[in-house]
Amino acid sequence: MKLDAPVTGGPCWTELGTTDLEAARRFYTRLFGWRPETDPRQEAGGYTIAHLGDAAVAALAPLYQPSQPVAWNVSFTVTDADAVARAVTEAGGTVLFGPSDVFDAGRFAVAADPGGAVFQMWQAGTFPGAGLFNAPGSLGWVELYTRDPEHAVAFYTRVFGWTVNASERYPQWGVDGADFGGMVTMDDKFPPEVPPHWLPYFAVADVDATTAVVQAHGDVLMVPTSVPDGPRIAVLRDPQGAMFGVYRAGDEG
Fold it and tell me: SUPFAM superfamilies recorded for this chain (predicted)?
């Protein structure tokens, strides 16, 4: 990812909604070396921020609604969550929650694009988002899986003003040309029950070693693969069923 700090329109945070918060803490601490800290306030609902050193890098949280799937969610920085929520609706998407204030940390909303991929919007207050990107254990790339790439491009460029590196093989999203993610078209290889979604990728020092750890506790959905002219990557699933990707730190463009 060419971004190394939260910027308007770019990914700023990723958080896991899980059925077993304690198991998730143990799993990701072992995998990435995170130091998780749970907000002690009752109204925070167990929200847990993971750190590397002093930098906040991701969050773990229990499921807050029965319909909420176990999944990693990606947040994008906005300057006005209410205005962007209106833009989502005008562009054919759906606002699922909010916008709502999160203490004094910021203003938050959850939405789905016209294809059904869920994403989050974050208007920073005292908390801008992740304090570290592209380093082992931190967010380094985000990927949209969609069955309707043309409408996805139209939607996200309208809502966020993203630039698109329109490669036929792998279109990439950017902010003013600084790429932060890509888009995968879901073809017949994807079972129909797999919904469109956003997938975060975490940087790691060794993709193969990380995958070996997951094999003992979770699932490997895509074995370590060296992308031509790109990074070495793998797609994994934690013991509660949340999917995420990893790539070798230093391979990002």
Answer: Glyoxalase/Bleomycin resistance protein/Dihydroxybiphenyl dioxygenase (SSF54593)
